[in-house]
């Protein structure tokens, strides 16, 4: 006989009624179905299909609300709380939120999901039988992915970050495309579970895509030019940066590539707002 396990769906016989609910049984173990967890079509004379979980006191309990997220079954779950010394809690549609342990989250807490972010996950139990959320693996994401076509190149997309590595971020788009954002194609690193918007800059042979979070040149020039000009104003009209500056110095100061810096600086010069001299840039009076 199968042992009752949190995170699974079971069909159990109603064994007896109690003031606060009904005890269900598989013939060997009992579990409480609280009155608050009954559905409108509950019939004590019939076996009940329920989802098993641990209540707030850690006791195995049953609910007639069957979530899409179960052990071995994945879906999107919304982050409802962040606890720095524990992890993040997600809602799977039942009365008890589920913890995704800090051990399964990025080492840098600023890259943890925040309330409202979404994670594609399943459930798992530890050696003590406690129920936790389990983030989808790369293999699971490939199972649900759709292939991009060549004509998807340069399209705007939106998606969720599902994995972080040193070189960049993996996402799945709303269309189901698996994508990768190299660290050079973003201004800042997105969080796990964060919704991002970008554009497809390459469609690969396997149908996955490379994505950039940087705007097209004509879209970003105004923003970049403004950032440079505001910086100049804050330094009384001069700065020790020009189109000859080292790319690392430009990245560190303005968080933009040298190519983007040169385009924006060129625009400011063309508009007669700034000029360069001996490696410095000045606001034109």
TrEMBL record:
InterPro entries (alphabetical): CvfB_fam (IPR014464), CvfB_S1_2nd (IPR048588), CvfB_S1_3rd (IPR048587), CvfB_S1_st (IPR039566), CvfB_WH (IPR040764), NA-bd_OB-fold (IPR012340), S1_domain (IPR003029), WH-like_DNA-bd_sf (IPR036388)
Pfam families documented for this protein: CvfB_1st, CvfB_2nd, S1_2, WHD_CvfB
S1 motif domain boundaries: 154-214
Cross-referenced Gene3D superfamilies: Nucleic acid-binding proteins, Winged helix-like DNA-binding domain superfamily/Winged helix DNA-binding domain
Matches recorded under PANTHER family: CONSERVED VIRULENCE FACTOR B (PTHR37296)
Similarity-based family: Belongs to the CvfB family.
Record-given protein name: S1 RNA-binding domain-containing protein
Protein's organism: Scopulibacillus cellulosilyticus
């Amino acid at each position: 006989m199968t042992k009752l396990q949190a995170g699974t769906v079971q069909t159990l016989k109603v064994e007896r009624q109690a003031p606060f609910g009904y005890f269900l049984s598989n013939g060997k173990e009992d579990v409480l179905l609280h009155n608050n967890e009954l559905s409108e079509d509950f019939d004590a004379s019939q076996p009940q299909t329920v989802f098993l979980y641990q209540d707030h006191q850690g006791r195995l309990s049953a609910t007639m609300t069957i979530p899409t997220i179960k052990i071995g079954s994945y879906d999107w779950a919304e982050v409802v709380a962040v606890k720095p010394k524990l992890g993040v809690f997600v809602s799977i549609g039942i009365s008890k939120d589920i913890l995704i342990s800090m051990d399964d989250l990025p080492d840098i807490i600023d890259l943890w999901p925040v309330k409202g972010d979404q994670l594609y996950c399943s459930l798992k139990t530890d050696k003590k039988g406690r129920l936790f959320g389990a983030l989808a693996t790369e293999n699971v994401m490939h199972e649900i992915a759709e292939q991009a076509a060549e004509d998807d190149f340069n399209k705007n997309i939106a998606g969720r970050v599902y994995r972080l590595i040193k070189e960049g971020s993996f996402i799945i788009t709303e269309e189901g495309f698996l994508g990768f954002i190299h660290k050079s194609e973003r201004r800042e690193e997105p969080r796990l579970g964060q919704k991002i918007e970008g554009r497809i800059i390459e469609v690969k042979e396997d149908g996955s895509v490379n994505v950039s979070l940087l705007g097209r040149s004509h879209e970003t020039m105004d923003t970049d030019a403004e950032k440079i000009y505001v910086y100049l104003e804050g330094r009384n009209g001069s700065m020790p940066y020009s189109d000859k500056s080292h790319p690392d110095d430009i990245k560190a100061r303005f968080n933009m590539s040298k190519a983007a810096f040169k385009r924006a600086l060129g625009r400011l010069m063309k508009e007669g707002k700034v000029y360069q001299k001996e490696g410095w840039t000045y606001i034109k009076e």
